[in-house]
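Q: My collaborator sent me two sequences in one message, no labels, and asked for predicted structures for both. Can we handle them in order? The first one she listed is below.
A: Yes, handling them in the order given. First sequence, followed by its structure tokens:
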Amino acid sequence: MALLKMAKNIFTKNESEVDSSPNLTLIDGDYHSDSETFSSEESNQYTEAQNEIEFLKKKNQLLEEENYRLRDGLTKIQKNLADSVGSNGNALGRMRDVDKSFDSIKRDSEKVLQSVVDLKKTVEATNQCTTDIDEGANSILQAVKGINEIAFQTKLLSFNASVEAARAGEAGKGFAVVAQEIQRLAEATSKLSAAIQDRTSNFGKISDDLKVASQQSLDGSEHIANLIESLDQLISETIAHNKSSLQDISATNDEIFMSLAKLDHVIWKINTYLSVIERKPAFKFVDHHNCRLGKWYYEGEGKEHFSKLSSYYSLENHHAKVHNGTKKIFDFLDSLEENIDKVIEGSKEMERASEDVFEGLDSILLEKKNVS
């Protein structure tokens, strides 16, 4: 019984205590310690217990070293994922700026297109005016020809009146005066007609030139309108593709971050168990507001892009329980033997909550995909 008591004590002691266990000496077939004497059977049990302790020590050392290597490897992956999230975040920021620029270009393009359409309408109206001017100039020229014809007939009438007045002699003097007046009127009409013709002789050419220029402007405005319309269509398609790419990259970035958050929790649990093995904190404990997931949730992109989702709010309680479970374990690192049940309880709380966090992150991603 004394041996079993000693073995039990040895199992509950740490390494330094094991090294200081009593030395045994074989005397007359029995093992003697500084304080007790054991039978051969008890000595064999004690030796087996020591061997088992040595095995457990080596096994514990192996697992401890492996956990450290696992933590180091996962920490490197964690850093790579964190860097990827950071790089993707920067790329997303630039793409969002480009998206805003495209939206601005699209609005400006629509304004330019509307201006060209208005210009086209103005040129069409101008073109119609040149046609009206051309028709008016032709009418004036036709009128001038009519005036010239009237002037010619008036002169002929005046000449005939003068001839008849000369034949009438003294009796035709009054008629001769009328003939002279008609002659002056005809000459004045001819001069006025010549002046009008002189002024309007270039109207035809000017009108033709204006009509050609107006038609060229109309053709040019139609060409510009077609180009801008094509550009506007291209910009619209580019914006659509860019928004689609932005959405895909954003979704990928979300998935990477969720994986990083899961990895954070795996490393958190490994560090927690290493703390139990070492009987001291293996990492700096923070509450659920100040870890990476907490900052994402309360003040980062999580709040900005996911806070409208119903699944977002279910994550908070589970996340808090993970940290609370670790906190319970940390509270008893100095007294593991006496409070091992409470440590196990904290561990179970941490593990259950961690699984709920994983499911919560998956639910957030799924809900966002369905909403999008």
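Q: And the one she listed second?
A: Here it is, processed independently of the first:
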Amino acid sequence: MQSDQSNRSVVQTIQRLAAEYAADVVAVRHHLHAHPELSFQETETVAFVAQELRKLGLDPRPVAGTGLVALIEGRPGGPAVALRADLDALPIQELNDVAYKSQTPGVMHACGHDVHTASLLGAARILVALKDEFRGTVKLLFQPGEERLPGGASLMIKEGVLENPAPRSVLGQHVFPQLPAGKIGLRPGRYMASTDELYLTIKGQGGHGAMPEQNLDPVLVAAHIIVAAQQIVSRRANPKIPSVLSFGKVVANGATNVIPNEVYLEGTFRTLNEEWRNEAHGHLRRLCEGLAASMGAVCELEIRRGYPYLENEPALTARTRAAAEEYLGLENVVELDQWMAAEDFAYFSQAAPACFYRLGTRAEDGRFASSVHTPTFDIDEKALAVGPGLMAWLAVRELQAQAAQ
């Protein structure tokens, strides 16, 4: 393990380089933001990233279709760690009036993946400049398709990105408009939820709304299912296990005086426990099919299994917190609550020790507070003076810690 004085010198060097490269990182982010691409369609994005990596003397190779992996080799004989960023955008029409506004109608970097990719490119530039200062390998993972099942992380893992060399730790960051720029947040243990998509079709017999006795009303059946299904969370789940069941789409294409033949519903189920997740699927299927049958209808339920829950390995997260405090100061590192949103970084967390932390992006005066996945999401770009340098330092510090074990 290097001395505190030596590490302080490395921190200062990284902070100097991060400040020196900040304008370039902002320019990269503007380019990415202006040219968003949807999940698994990131062809121009990945070509741009590959070009930037080659400028650094790196040799990126394709993975999972529109993803990339590249290695930064420090001094020989050390372990490997991985840093991950995602590439894809969302099907949202941007409403921000900025010079770097999306030029692709109906597509927007509304979840900050442009920030993640620009930060990782900035971190790569810093690490290349410092590769004589650390022993081991930093593996850069530029991942496609975070926003769409089956998730690009799962495909990258299947194609071997966690092998040759196998990283002992995987680190990822995500924008967080609830925190001001200059701060980060993290949480050890179970942090984000699994996510499953629910698709229900309830079939009855439609007809005239004034003669319900001649019909079998699927709207009424759907209403009973929506209400009754909540007992799976309120009465079947252990109260100590966070669970969410929500229906966000109901299509009953009748009229004021027309009962339709069928009703279509879409929803989501989320939790932080895989055993309960599997059990809840069975409860939900029996309830939907059984309740519909008891009312004379038929319910067809499709459960599309999504991402697992995200686990921040406690020891790694403690090391990440300590390293972040060294880089940012104790007051700028905060503890987060559990979050019932989902992230396919969870696949990395199920395959290797992982830590997923949040990068503050809100301005101190309250600007840039729009949530992710909204058409007005944007960031205080002071965060881009923090994200790249912090990622670089976390990688160096984790290589030191792994080498000492």
